[in-house]
Design brief:
It comes from Cuerna arida. The strands form 5 sheets. Strands 9, 10, 11, 12, 13 and 14 form a 6-stranded mixed β-sheet that branches. Strands 15, 16, 17, 18 and 19 form a 5-stranded mixed β-sheet that branches. With 305 residues, this protein is α+β, with helices and mostly antiparallel strands. The protein contains 6 helices and 19 strands.
Length: 305
Amino acid sequence: FVDEGGTIRGINIHVNPYDKEFPGVKFLYDGHTDWIHICSIEDLCFITVRSDGTMEIARKTGIPIYFKFLSILSMFSLVSLLDGYYRLGVKWTFSLSKDLPTPSLERLHAIKCHGPVGGEFSYSKLEKIRSNKPGCYILRESELEYDQYYLDVCVENSTKPTTYKIERRIGGGFSFGTEEKRYSTMQELMAMLKSPESPVKLVECLPPSEYDVSPLLLCRLEKENFDAADDDEVSQMLPCVTHFIDPKELQLFKGHTKEHQGRISVVYRGVWRRKKKKKIDIALKVFKSDHHKVEEQLELLGQWA
């Protein structure tokens, strides 16, 4: 229902961000045929709910509008729908209603963790905002595994961050990389990594921002998603001649268990993100940092070529 100067009128509410005539939220009076536009999803400011079933929608394009629901669950359902569209289309880290916050988003805010934005976005943000300054890092959720996180850290003498895996273990706690030790909370694990004895140098965290334009904004018109390529697509994408790959297209997972370790090189799992929004799982052979015999490295490079 909607209250208009003391007169209560029944309405139907429709939500469609892609409606050609009235994108976003609109309503229709009972017995009428003309829809009335409230606002687009982008023009939503915040939503307030009360225990009596009243919901207030604040918008950029007009005065607040109030609705009265017979069912509290129906009111919560609409708030959830609008909040979901807003987070997927405008600001992924922002909840429209403080009265009904998203629990998972609150947990991410508490540990300054990004959602499953992917390595490419994280690397780009570190380069753009901090120019890959050593010690700067981003913590993010895995885009493939629910209980996994990735820590992207800018290191000395490297144009790309190094990625480490953090895993939530069955039974509780977190583990870092291939270590067996468990930490009771993510905060405890990050405190260990910031200690002088840590194998990783952490200086400054780049937290998620409501202004991030990440791949999580699935409902934006200009989507930037990478889809896994199937076998036929992989064969077509792989070049038939020698091909030089831009290092920015490669994502190396050093936090994963090594696939193979030789005398002067180590093989890691990785991803090659192609410009046509496709990604290929790959194996990356990397020279060991403590091996400095150039002749052997050049000989091995010749064999690879």
